[in-house]
Write a structure and sequence with these properties.
Helix content is 31%, strand content 22%. It is an alpha+beta fold and 157 residues long. The chain has a domain of 100 residues: Nuclear Transport Factor 2, Chain: A, CATH 3.10.450. A four-stranded antiparallel beta sheet has the order 1-2-3-4. Strand 3 and strand 4 form a beta hairpin. The longest helix has 17 residues.
Amino acid sequence: MRSVLFAAGIAAFALTSAVPGFARPRATPTPSPSPTPIADPAITKLARQQFVQWQAGSINKSLYAQQVLDKLTDAKIADTSTALGQLGALMDVVFLGPWIAPDFPPGARGYAYQMRCSSGNIYLWLALDAQGKIATILFKNRLDVETVTPAPSPSPP
């Protein structure tokens, strides 16, 4: 009797494992999505205003920290205005996320944006110091990527 039950159990196992209809479907694991960075509306408004002012060549210098003012010459403003003006009207501002740089002043917070214009895009890197003054503003035509310095080759023995 035991051999009959054992044989029936084996037969049942063989049937359930051989017939695909009895297999339970398993969900394909998917990676968790990265959270979308949330923009601060006040900072986004400031980024938009600064971009448009730079395009026009007329910036509000009272918004800038002294270390930036020391570098803001009329020629630099005019050159930047000319370059940004070629991009055409600002159509959209896209917050990319926070930006951190080792040379930030203590308490500074940085933000990266893509400025989408009618004739092209550019990236705006904006950092505010602890007092809320613009401590850094950069316009770049591409996102920076990390540069990895190759390890030195081993010297021959």
